[in-house]
Structure formats: C-alpha cells, structure tokens
C-alpha cells in the first residue's frame, strides 16, 4: 500500500534532500510543498514526486497540499512569524488526519531559557505535542552546507571565511545525514514521541574548517574572527532585519562559548552508518570553494 508523505519547505537545504531520498523508495508518494512552483521545477524530475504550491495565507492551497497526506516532514522558514506559520500547518494536519509529523527543529531547542532561535522551535514543538498528532522532533546542529550557502563567495574570491565565532567548536552536520534520519523516521516504526539530537562526527572551530578546506582543495583559506559589532554593521549594510541579526548574533555567541560542541551518535544509531565528516563534505563539494 502506498503512503503519501508531504514535505513542506521542499526547496530548502534540508527539505530538498528529504524529497530526493524519499523519491528513491518504492511505495512512497512524495508531495513536495513549495512556495513557488517555478522554484520547485527541478523536483518534478525526481521519480514519484508531486509538486504542490503552499501559501500560508491561502487555506485552499494548504487544504490541497494536506489532502490524503499520511505523514508530514515539517520545515518552517526562518521568519519572524514562523510560529504562526507552524500553527497553521499543524491545524491543517489535524484536520486532514495526518498520522505523524516529523519536525525539523534545532539543537538546543529544549534548553531553558535558551536562545531566541531555540525558543521559537520549542514553541512550535509544544504546539505539535498539544495537537494530539504523533510526532518526532529532529534537532540537528548547524549545517555543513551553510559554508557553501553563505561563505563560498568570500572563500572563492578572497580565500577567507568571515564569522564572529572565535575559537568555539561546533558539531556541524551534513544535511544529507539529517535527511537520512528523517527518511528512517518517516518510513520506520517506533519513533513516535522521540526527540533526536543530530550532529556530525566531530566538533570543529571555524579555524579548523578553514584548514580542512585548504587541505582538501589545495587553496589557502583563512578564518577571520569578526567582532560582533562589525558583524552587525555588515548585516545592516545587507539590509538584514534587526530581529534576524539579533537571532543570528545570539547563535554565534553560543558557538563562540563552545556550547555547540557536543557530539551524539544518533545518526549512526538510526541509519546504520556513520555521518559524513567535514573532510568528506568538502571533498564532494570542491566546486563550491574553488
């Protein structure tokens, strides 16, 4: 019997990988929820993937996306009103009779008082818990792919990574490993009510990240530790909203203090294989840095 799994935020870094990995499985109908059908065009090429437009302010689009969906992999955008968006999705899932929500959360979301990013995620988690829908929360560390998404241009052009992180270490995770866990949870059994902290196999400072990129690519890369006030000024020049700058700088301060350096074995326990190392990631994404 076929199962229909809806992936919201399907064009994002994690959502896209979840769609890709689910599309490789027999007996799964993948419904990719996207904000723009144009952006989701590439997903149509994957076998068994249906692309649907989801607009949070359009109840009809949400109803169409959730109709006959058995399970949902829920990703909400990094936005000031993300908790409101999430409540809308959970309410629609309840109405549609969804049997399991797997939510992409963040490492540290259960900490008290925590940081703003964690508090947003925890508020959404609580709403899901209260909905009565079986759930699983995935709380990953910072993504390796962020060095591609946000730092690749300065690495290519200047051979430098600018970040306000000091020598704090972070247990960066490859989003392919997050997706592999998501697929296991969505298609397996016994994960309801569980919270999984997901990390890569090691914690690295950004200085060590730069050294790894240098070693693998042969291109000298240096880490430049940016003072917080300079980082804020740079964000303002790029028209980053104040709420977003505050949240990001708070996250960087946690990294700087070394609070993001814990390593778990969850990826291997749940998927049966070790997570990708940062060295492997760079080796497979050389073009992003050279």
Q: Helical proportion?
A: 40-55%
Please list the strands of the largest sheet in the order they lie side by side: 3-2-1-4-5-6-8
Give a short account of the largest sheet. Answer: 7 strands, parallel
CATH homologous superfamily identity of the largest domain: NAD(P)-binding Rossmann-like Domain
Record field, number of beta strands: 9
What do the pLDDT scores average to? Answer: 96
Rg over C-alpha atoms, rounded to the nearest angstrom: 19 Å
Structural class: alpha/beta
CATH topology of the largest domain: Rossmann fold
Morphology: globular
Kindly estimate the percentage of residues that lie in beta strands according to DSSP: 15-25%
The N- to C-terminal Cα distance equals 46 Å
CATH class of the largest domain: Alpha Beta
Alpha plus pi helix count: 11
Write the layout of secondary structure elements.
Layout: E1 3-7, H1 13-22, E2 28-34, E3 49-53, H2 59-66, E4 71-74, H3 82-96, E5 100-104, H4 116-131, E6 135-140, H5 146-158, E7 160-163, H6 175-187, E8 194-198, H7 206-217, E9 222-225, H8 228-237, H9 242-256, H10 266-271, H11 278-284
Parallel strand pairs: 1-2, 1-4, 2-3, 4-5, 5-6, 6-8, 7-9
Helix pairs in contact: 1-6, 3-4, 7-11, 8-9
Organism: Pontibacter fetidus
Protein name: SDR family oxidoreductase
InterPro entries: Ergot_Alk_Oxidoreductase, NAD(P)-bd_dom_sf, NmrA-like
